[in-house]
Amino acid sequence: MAHIALPEGLPGISSGFAFRPETAKPMRELAHILLHGANSLAPAERELIATYVSTQNDCYFCQTSHGAAAAAHLGSGELVKQVKTDFQSSQVSPKLKALLAIAGKVQQGGKNVTSGDVEHARSLGATDLEIHDTVLIAAAFCMYNRYVDGLGTWQPHDESMYAQMGEHLAKQGYRTPSIAQPEPALK
Amino acid sequence: MPYIALHEGVTGIRAAMAFRPETAGPLNDLAETLLHAPHTIPPGERELIATYVSYLNDCYFCQTIHGFIAAASLDGDEELVKRVKADFQHASISDKLKALLVIASKVQKGGKHVTAEDVEHARSLGATDLEIHDAVLIAAAFCMYNRYVDGLGTWQPHDDAMYRERGKRVAREGHVTVSKEYLPANAFVDAVAK
After folding, report:
1. What is the count of structural domains for chain A?
2. ipTM of the complex, rounded to two decimals
3. Most buried in the list A24, A93, A159, B5, measured by CB within 10 Å?
4. Minimum-distance CB partner of A136 among B1, B141, B148
Protein backbone atom coordinates (compact mmCIF):
# COMPACT_ATOMS: atom_id res chain seq x y z
CA MET A 1 0.00 0.00 0.00
CA ALA A 2 1.35 3.37 -0.99
CA HIS A 3 1.61 5.90 1.85
CA ILE A 4 -0.56 8.44 0.01
CA ALA A 5 -3.40 8.18 -2.53
CA LEU A 6 -1.34 7.59 -5.67
CA PRO A 7 -3.15 6.72 -8.93
CA GLU A 8 -3.77 2.98 -9.04
CA GLY A 9 -2.25 0.68 -11.62
CA LEU A 10 0.92 2.68 -12.15
CA PRO A 11 4.16 1.13 -10.88
CA GLY A 12 7.02 2.85 -9.10
CA ILE A 13 7.92 6.39 -10.05
CA SER A 14 5.14 6.56 -12.69
CA SER A 15 2.61 6.90 -9.85
CA GLY A 16 4.54 9.75 -8.20
CA PHE A 17 4.85 11.46 -11.58
CA ALA A 18 1.11 11.13 -12.26
CA PHE A 19 0.27 12.40 -8.76
CA ARG A 20 2.41 15.56 -9.15
CA PRO A 21 3.00 16.54 -12.81
CA GLU A 22 4.64 19.84 -11.77
CA THR A 23 7.61 18.02 -10.22
CA ALA A 24 7.50 15.17 -12.76
CA LYS A 25 8.46 17.55 -15.56
CA PRO A 26 11.92 18.60 -14.30
CA MET A 27 12.57 15.09 -12.93
CA ARG A 28 11.87 13.56 -16.34
CA GLU A 29 13.93 16.22 -18.07
CA LEU A 30 16.91 15.64 -15.77
CA ALA A 31 16.81 11.87 -16.38
CA HIS A 32 16.49 12.45 -20.12
CA ILE A 33 19.57 14.69 -20.30
CA LEU A 34 21.66 12.50 -18.01
CA LEU A 35 20.76 9.10 -19.45
CA HIS A 36 19.50 9.67 -22.99
CA GLY A 37 21.00 12.96 -24.21
CA ALA A 38 24.06 13.12 -26.46
CA ASN A 39 27.14 12.23 -24.42
CA SER A 40 30.60 10.73 -24.83
CA LEU A 41 29.50 8.04 -22.36
CA ALA A 42 27.27 5.51 -24.12
CA PRO A 43 23.63 5.39 -22.95
CA ALA A 44 24.23 1.78 -21.81
CA GLU A 45 27.13 2.91 -19.61
CA ARG A 46 25.05 5.67 -18.04
CA GLU A 47 22.16 3.23 -17.44
CA LEU A 48 24.62 0.84 -15.79
CA ILE A 49 25.68 3.62 -13.39
CA ALA A 50 22.00 4.33 -12.60
CA THR A 51 21.32 0.62 -12.12
CA TYR A 52 24.32 0.13 -9.86
CA VAL A 53 23.43 3.08 -7.59
CA SER A 54 19.80 1.92 -7.42
CA THR A 55 21.02 -1.54 -6.41
CA GLN A 56 23.20 -0.04 -3.67
CA ASN A 57 20.12 1.88 -2.48
CA ASP A 58 18.08 -1.34 -2.62
CA CYS A 59 15.34 0.19 -4.80
CA TYR A 60 13.70 -2.70 -6.64
CA PHE A 61 11.74 -0.64 -9.17
CA CYS A 62 14.67 1.56 -10.22
CA GLN A 63 17.34 -1.12 -10.40
CA THR A 64 15.01 -3.37 -12.43
CA SER A 65 13.72 -0.75 -14.87
CA HIS A 66 17.14 0.84 -15.47
CA GLY A 67 18.75 -2.59 -15.63
CA ALA A 68 16.19 -3.39 -18.35
CA ALA A 69 17.05 -0.15 -20.17
CA ALA A 70 20.77 -1.01 -20.01
CA ALA A 71 20.02 -4.53 -21.28
CA ALA A 72 17.94 -3.09 -24.13
CA HIS A 73 20.90 -0.93 -25.20
CA LEU A 74 23.33 -3.84 -24.86
CA GLY A 75 21.11 -6.53 -26.37
CA SER A 76 21.58 -8.75 -23.29
CA GLY A 77 21.11 -8.66 -19.53
CA GLU A 78 24.28 -10.59 -18.68
CA LEU A 79 26.55 -7.58 -18.21
CA VAL A 80 23.89 -5.87 -16.10
CA LYS A 81 23.90 -8.81 -13.67
CA GLN A 82 27.69 -8.77 -13.49
CA VAL A 83 27.81 -5.04 -12.75
CA LYS A 84 25.18 -5.33 -10.02
CA THR A 85 26.98 -8.25 -8.32
CA ASP A 86 30.64 -7.26 -8.69
CA PHE A 87 31.47 -4.60 -11.24
CA GLN A 88 35.23 -4.86 -10.64
CA SER A 89 35.19 -8.40 -12.09
CA SER A 90 32.74 -7.52 -14.89
CA GLN A 91 33.48 -7.05 -18.60
CA VAL A 92 33.08 -3.26 -18.55
CA SER A 93 35.98 -0.96 -19.46
CA PRO A 94 38.49 0.13 -16.79
CA LYS A 95 37.22 3.71 -17.30
CA LEU A 96 33.65 2.69 -16.51
CA LYS A 97 34.87 0.75 -13.46
CA ALA A 98 36.57 3.91 -12.21
CA LEU A 99 33.34 5.89 -12.79
CA LEU A 100 31.29 3.21 -11.01
CA ALA A 101 33.69 3.50 -8.05
CA ILE A 102 33.02 7.25 -7.93
CA ALA A 103 29.26 6.63 -8.20
CA GLY A 104 29.49 4.14 -5.31
CA LYS A 105 31.22 6.78 -3.17
CA VAL A 106 28.57 9.40 -4.04
CA GLN A 107 25.86 6.93 -3.04
CA GLN A 108 27.39 6.72 0.45
CA GLY A 109 27.74 10.52 0.63
CA GLY A 110 29.37 13.21 -1.50
CA LYS A 111 32.33 13.67 0.84
CA ASN A 112 33.44 10.07 0.27
CA VAL A 113 34.74 10.95 -3.20
CA THR A 114 38.50 11.59 -3.12
CA SER A 115 40.79 13.39 -5.54
CA GLY A 116 42.51 10.00 -5.92
CA ASP A 117 39.24 8.46 -7.22
CA VAL A 118 38.89 11.28 -9.73
CA GLU A 119 42.56 11.19 -10.81
CA HIS A 120 42.26 7.45 -11.38
CA ALA A 121 39.21 7.91 -13.63
CA ARG A 122 41.01 10.70 -15.50
CA SER A 123 44.11 8.54 -16.02
CA LEU A 124 41.85 6.00 -17.75
CA GLY A 125 40.50 8.65 -20.12
CA ALA A 126 37.48 10.07 -18.27
CA THR A 127 36.77 13.73 -19.14
CA ASP A 128 35.58 16.37 -16.68
CA LEU A 129 32.10 16.22 -18.20
CA GLU A 130 31.98 12.43 -17.78
CA ILE A 131 33.08 12.75 -14.15
CA HIS A 132 30.51 15.50 -13.57
CA ASP A 133 27.74 13.43 -15.10
CA THR A 134 28.72 10.33 -13.14
CA VAL A 135 28.51 12.30 -9.89
CA LEU A 136 25.16 13.80 -10.88
CA ILE A 137 23.68 10.48 -12.11
CA ALA A 138 24.65 8.85 -8.79
CA ALA A 139 23.30 11.82 -6.81
CA ALA A 140 20.08 11.93 -8.85
CA PHE A 141 19.41 8.24 -8.24
CA CYS A 142 19.81 8.87 -4.51
CA MET A 143 16.80 11.12 -5.09
CA TYR A 144 14.74 8.92 -7.45
CA ASN A 145 15.30 5.81 -5.29
CA ARG A 146 14.24 7.60 -2.09
CA TYR A 147 11.22 9.10 -3.84
CA VAL A 148 10.05 5.70 -5.11
CA ASP A 149 10.54 3.89 -1.79
CA GLY A 150 9.69 6.81 0.49
CA LEU A 151 6.14 7.00 -0.98
CA GLY A 152 5.72 3.23 -0.66
CA THR A 153 4.94 2.89 -4.39
CA TRP A 154 3.62 -0.32 -5.96
CA GLN A 155 6.59 -2.25 -7.42
CA PRO A 156 5.30 -5.43 -9.07
CA HIS A 157 7.73 -8.27 -9.74
CA ASP A 158 6.92 -8.71 -13.41
CA GLU A 159 9.89 -9.19 -15.72
CA SER A 160 7.97 -8.68 -18.96
CA MET A 161 6.69 -5.29 -17.76
CA TYR A 162 10.22 -4.11 -16.95
CA ALA A 163 11.53 -5.47 -20.26
CA GLN A 164 8.91 -3.40 -22.12
CA MET A 165 9.75 -0.33 -20.07
CA GLY A 166 13.45 -0.87 -20.74
CA GLU A 167 12.82 -1.01 -24.51
CA HIS A 168 10.80 2.19 -24.36
CA LEU A 169 13.37 4.02 -22.21
CA ALA A 170 16.24 2.90 -24.45
CA LYS A 171 14.46 4.10 -27.62
CA GLN A 172 12.43 7.11 -26.47
CA GLY A 173 14.18 8.34 -23.36
CA TYR A 174 12.49 9.89 -20.35
CA ARG A 175 10.34 12.78 -21.53
CA THR A 176 7.21 10.69 -22.03
CA PRO A 177 5.71 7.92 -19.86
CA SER A 178 7.31 4.50 -20.46
CA ILE A 179 4.22 2.68 -19.28
CA ALA A 180 0.63 2.79 -20.52
CA GLN A 181 -1.42 5.24 -18.46
CA PRO A 182 -4.67 3.80 -17.07
CA GLU A 183 -7.89 4.82 -18.82
CA PRO A 184 -9.51 7.79 -17.09
CA ALA A 185 -12.42 6.64 -14.94
CA LEU A 186 -15.82 6.92 -16.66
CA LYS A 187 -17.78 9.81 -15.34
CA MET B 1 40.00 22.39 -4.86
CA PRO B 2 37.11 21.16 -6.99
CA TYR B 3 37.77 17.75 -8.59
CA ILE B 4 36.99 19.03 -12.08
CA ALA B 5 37.62 22.38 -13.82
CA LEU B 6 34.78 24.46 -12.35
CA HIS B 7 34.74 28.26 -12.71
CA GLU B 8 36.96 29.84 -10.09
CA GLY B 9 35.37 32.03 -7.46
CA VAL B 10 31.90 30.50 -7.96
CA THR B 11 30.49 28.84 -4.84
CA GLY B 12 28.85 25.48 -4.20
CA ILE B 13 26.15 24.25 -6.55
CA ARG B 14 26.42 27.45 -8.64
CA ALA B 15 29.83 26.34 -9.94
CA ALA B 16 28.50 22.89 -10.86
CA MET B 17 25.45 24.40 -12.55
CA ALA B 18 27.53 26.90 -14.52
CA PHE B 19 29.71 23.98 -15.70
CA ARG B 20 26.65 22.11 -17.05
CA PRO B 21 23.75 24.51 -17.77
CA GLU B 22 21.76 21.73 -19.48
CA THR B 23 21.23 19.92 -16.18
CA ALA B 24 21.03 23.19 -14.22
CA GLY B 25 17.69 23.95 -15.92
CA PRO B 26 15.68 21.04 -14.48
CA LEU B 27 17.62 21.17 -11.18
CA ASN B 28 16.53 24.79 -10.65
CA ASP B 29 12.99 24.15 -11.92
CA LEU B 30 12.58 21.34 -9.39
CA ALA B 31 13.86 23.49 -6.51
CA GLU B 32 11.55 26.32 -7.58
CA THR B 33 8.46 24.10 -7.61
CA LEU B 34 9.30 22.37 -4.33
CA LEU B 35 10.48 25.36 -2.32
CA HIS B 36 9.24 28.63 -3.79
CA ALA B 37 6.05 28.08 -5.84
CA PRO B 38 2.67 28.73 -4.16
CA HIS B 39 1.86 25.95 -1.70
CA THR B 40 -0.11 25.11 1.43
CA ILE B 41 3.23 24.76 3.27
CA PRO B 42 4.80 28.24 3.52
CA PRO B 43 8.17 28.66 1.76
CA GLY B 44 9.97 29.16 5.10
CA GLU B 45 8.80 25.74 6.32
CA ARG B 46 9.78 24.00 3.08
CA GLU B 47 13.20 25.65 3.29
CA LEU B 48 13.48 24.36 6.88
CA ILE B 49 12.95 20.80 5.59
CA ALA B 50 15.66 21.37 2.96
CA THR B 51 17.99 22.85 5.59
CA TYR B 52 17.45 20.01 8.03
CA VAL B 53 18.10 17.28 5.44
CA SER B 54 21.22 19.13 4.22
CA TYR B 55 22.40 19.34 7.83
CA LEU B 56 21.90 15.57 8.27
CA ASN B 57 23.88 15.04 5.06
CA ASP B 58 26.59 17.34 6.45
CA CYS B 59 26.59 19.59 3.37
CA TYR B 60 27.88 22.98 4.54
CA PHE B 61 26.91 24.97 1.46
CA CYS B 62 23.32 23.69 1.23
CA GLN B 63 22.47 23.81 4.94
CA THR B 64 23.86 27.36 5.14
CA ILE B 65 22.22 28.90 2.08
CA HIS B 66 18.88 27.16 2.64
CA GLY B 67 19.06 28.06 6.34
CA PHE B 68 19.39 31.72 5.39
CA ILE B 69 16.59 31.46 2.79
CA ALA B 70 14.40 29.92 5.52
CA ALA B 71 15.32 32.69 7.98
CA ALA B 72 14.57 35.37 5.38
CA SER B 73 11.13 33.81 4.84
CA LEU B 74 10.53 33.63 8.62
CA ASP B 75 10.96 37.32 9.50
CA GLY B 76 14.74 36.93 9.78
CA ASP B 77 14.49 34.38 12.61
CA GLU B 78 17.96 32.81 12.36
CA GLU B 79 17.62 31.41 15.89
CA LEU B 80 14.67 29.25 14.84
CA VAL B 81 16.72 27.79 12.00
CA LYS B 82 19.53 26.90 14.43
CA ARG B 83 17.01 25.36 16.79
CA VAL B 84 15.47 23.17 14.08
CA LYS B 85 18.91 21.89 13.10
CA ALA B 86 19.92 21.19 16.71
CA ASP B 87 16.65 19.66 17.99
CA PHE B 88 13.52 20.26 15.93
CA GLN B 89 11.24 18.42 18.38
CA HIS B 90 11.76 21.28 20.85
CA ALA B 91 11.69 24.13 18.32
CA SER B 92 8.82 26.62 18.03
CA ILE B 93 7.32 25.09 14.92
CA SER B 94 3.96 23.40 14.40
CA ASP B 95 3.40 19.75 15.31
CA LYS B 96 2.53 19.12 11.67
CA LEU B 97 5.92 20.42 10.54
CA LYS B 98 7.63 18.28 13.19
CA ALA B 99 5.86 15.22 11.79
CA LEU B 100 6.97 16.16 8.25
CA LEU B 101 10.55 16.63 9.49
CA VAL B 102 10.43 13.11 10.97
CA ILE B 103 9.38 11.77 7.55
CA ALA B 104 12.12 13.81 5.86
CA SER B 105 14.76 12.45 8.22
CA LYS B 106 13.63 8.88 7.46
CA VAL B 107 13.89 9.57 3.72
CA GLN B 108 17.41 10.93 4.29
CA LYS B 109 18.44 7.53 5.70
CA GLY B 110 16.68 5.69 2.88
CA GLY B 111 13.16 5.62 1.43
CA LYS B 112 12.25 2.31 3.07
CA HIS B 113 12.63 3.82 6.56
CA VAL B 114 9.36 5.74 6.17
CA THR B 115 6.55 3.82 7.88
CA ALA B 116 2.77 3.94 7.54
CA GLU B 117 2.72 5.18 11.16
CA ASP B 118 4.97 8.14 10.33
CA VAL B 119 2.57 9.10 7.56
CA GLU B 120 -0.57 8.51 9.65
CA HIS B 121 0.86 10.67 12.40
CA ALA B 122 1.51 13.54 9.98
CA ARG B 123 -1.99 13.13 8.56
CA SER B 124 -3.58 13.17 12.04
CA LEU B 125 -1.92 16.57 12.53
CA GLY B 126 -3.47 17.91 9.35
CA ALA B 127 -0.89 17.07 6.67
CA THR B 128 -2.42 16.50 3.23
CA ASP B 129 -1.25 13.89 0.73
CA LEU B 130 0.35 16.64 -1.35
CA GLU B 131 2.23 17.95 1.69
CA ILE B 132 3.46 14.45 2.55
CA HIS B 133 4.46 13.87 -1.08
CA ASP B 134 6.40 17.12 -1.16
CA ALA B 135 8.11 16.48 2.21
CA VAL B 136 9.32 13.13 0.80
CA LEU B 137 10.45 14.69 -2.46
CA ILE B 138 12.18 17.70 -0.83
CA ALA B 139 14.12 15.29 1.39
CA ALA B 140 14.95 13.02 -1.56
CA ALA B 141 15.96 15.96 -3.76
CA PHE B 142 18.34 17.28 -1.11
CA CYS B 143 19.96 13.86 -0.92
CA MET B 144 20.77 14.63 -4.57
CA TYR B 145 21.75 18.32 -4.30
CA ASN B 146 23.95 17.66 -1.25
CA ARG B 147 25.81 14.79 -2.94
CA TYR B 148 26.23 16.85 -6.11
CA VAL B 149 27.76 19.78 -4.20
CA ASP B 150 30.10 17.68 -2.06
CA GLY B 151 30.82 14.95 -4.62
CA LEU B 152 32.43 17.49 -6.97
CA GLY B 153 34.44 19.08 -4.14
CA THR B 154 32.94 22.53 -4.79
CA TRP B 155 34.24 25.68 -3.09
CA GLN B 156 32.14 26.42 0.02
CA PRO B 157 33.48 29.52 1.76
CA HIS B 158 32.45 30.20 5.36
CA ASP B 159 30.97 33.67 4.99
CA ASP B 160 27.64 34.21 6.75
CA ALA B 161 27.21 37.73 5.38
CA MET B 162 27.34 36.42 1.80
CA TYR B 163 24.86 33.59 2.45
CA ARG B 164 22.54 35.94 4.38
CA GLU B 165 22.35 38.45 1.51
CA ARG B 166 21.90 35.70 -1.03
CA GLY B 167 19.25 34.03 1.15
CA LYS B 168 17.19 37.22 1.21
CA ARG B 169 17.38 37.49 -2.57
CA VAL B 170 16.35 33.87 -3.18
CA ALA B 171 13.50 34.16 -0.64
CA ARG B 172 12.23 37.19 -2.56
CA GLU B 173 12.87 36.21 -6.18
CA GLY B 174 13.07 32.41 -6.22
CA HIS B 175 15.68 29.91 -7.37
CA VAL B 176 15.20 30.25 -11.12
CA THR B 177 15.41 34.04 -11.24
CA VAL B 178 18.51 34.15 -9.04
CA SER B 179 20.16 31.43 -11.16
CA LYS B 180 20.50 34.01 -13.97
CA GLU B 181 23.31 35.54 -11.89
CA TYR B 182 25.58 32.57 -12.49
CA LEU B 183 24.27 30.67 -15.54
CA PRO B 184 25.24 31.68 -19.08
CA ALA B 185 22.52 33.76 -20.74
CA ASN B 186 21.85 31.18 -23.48
CA ALA B 187 20.70 28.68 -20.84
CA PHE B 188 17.43 30.63 -20.84
CA VAL B 189 16.70 30.63 -24.55
CA ASP B 190 14.44 27.58 -24.21
CA ALA B 191 12.59 28.99 -21.24
CA VAL B 192 11.88 32.22 -23.07
CA ALA B 193 10.72 30.40 -26.18
CA LYS B 194 8.10 28.41 -24.26
Report:
1. 1
2. 0.96
3. A24
4. B148
